[in-house]
């Protein structure tokens, strides 16, 4: 169960938490002692939820055993660490190439580095080389517990607390010529290992055990653990596995993870066993694996014969341990079309990804481009697909339709930025593998901040009322793929980009609407017909965010039966500052489409709903970690509900999974509900772990406005008209530091219900006596008796709630039907 901690601070800083984190401390280090002191601050000096950034200047740091500690064992909850290499003098600029910043232990016996994460703590380690460590004999936590068996770099969660939201990411690092039981060991709820080189290390078994692996990721059932390992090169390590994914059957776990792991586009070669996946019997760790190059893998690893490569990767200069790809490497332009967490913006040396039609497998991107390239040199458009203006975008698209392989369209127009292409007629359809890259036009600059749009885009397509700019027709083959980067679209009467066929489309870093003296787009992007999943936006790189504003209908419309699209980090309904009004009629609409993921988007100012889930085929959609009605540090409510569920949409997840506490969205509403499952909505729609600020109901089930409990539950209606818990009292036991919440639930007989407890400063402004979900405090499970009506008492440790505070609760049945928020109660002595 989660605990009540720093409630007032959480509420007062909630807007900043959503957009930019809380307080921060930044260090610029250039010596071993400065590096050690900065890590000491992370361990003992940082306050709860503080972000500690350590910028390491270029050079070699001969650390010996100076860093052989478990940093973070004494840290406050929620403290995060960013350890970043590649900075120049005074940290004035940065070159993120791990070869220029080396942490060298000089083969000091027992040397290693440990990082502990607490609460919602996160660690990012980027652009560093770790060399000649000799494996820490042990890392010991603050309470004396031994944490390792000889790791070079250990990043671990705190085992004494609730840590299903810990996050660690290692990207663009080199681990070379080390010695230890394992070289990299990650042990957190969410682990990302991207663009790293792990090579030429000697694995030494701990006493009485085998070696753990050069790169080891531990999946724990009680933290809903997930690993994303993409574009790594793990080669030439001795006496142990190259990559070990280690599942653990923990006593507190459910036996199943709700997070999906991904092992894609890695080179794991010339290790005793390249990839090992250990999964305890009866435990389910969903894992996607494809487009990996390896020689050997364990039986449990989900191999993909149609996409995996099982031959020598052919390195260009392995003798000097850089492991770039030779010109005849089978890894070049051979990677996956889509990665679930997005492609990295750079390779292991800081060079651009992607060159060619597909990403290269491994940590390094080759300069070899397999795509035929056309250069757009002018803004002219005569509207003729038969005889287009030479050097125009229309001419390039005509050439693309005739190409037999991947085709790339780039720009070098003489016109000033922005260069405006006014379309005289719809452009030719896209039926092949086509990339249109507006970032190549001189003058382009990227967006540098999440939830805002401060880049400079120079290629602008003005539709002048034409139906679309770019179109993949329903007759296009499944191999058709459209990739669009860095463009501006306005004035299209259907959808600026309409995807009716093909699959694996990717739209990133583009602006839709909000262009002076043009008419709005009806839709910015529509995925429809028989088109497969699309990736709209991005994760790691702010430059991949799409900016979608002022659409006369839905900003993004997903109504394809196949579903499976990902929308990540898009800025929908805002001015460039991420705050001002530029609303769409609806931010995102999912109409009879399934299994879509909406994550980390900012959606505000819609004249209707922020997100619409509609139709009986709209199922399995996940909305997590979004800011709905909120932009950069500011409330920007949608006029309608934050999320509206209607016309039979069912079994969707809005916030946390049913057996977890991570993934909650942040809502700011006005008088409309945060989430409204309307009278026509379906069943099984879970609404869990969200934070809501507004004057209406935070969760509204059925007819608009607060609903009373029904005498017999479940009943006929949306979410089976799930009853909410009736709370009776909230008392604080000062002697034991526990608040006790007592109440009753009238539900189905002998059924296990999830009870979520929420904190607020006051009761709901839109429904007298009902609660509000300003902070998600805790969740637990109760089981009803043979009569269905069941009293309960929930102990919430680490209280008291505090003067003026109120608690309320929801109930969710095993099928995912969540209730409205029930009555609110204040603490009594």
UniProtKB/TrEMBL annotation:
It comes from the Bacteria. Residues 1-24 form the signal peptide. Transmembrane segments: none annotated. Keywords: Signal. This is Right-handed parallel beta-helix repeat-containing protein. The lineage of its organism: Bacteria, Pseudomonadati, Pseudomonadota, Gammaproteobacteria, Lysobacterales.
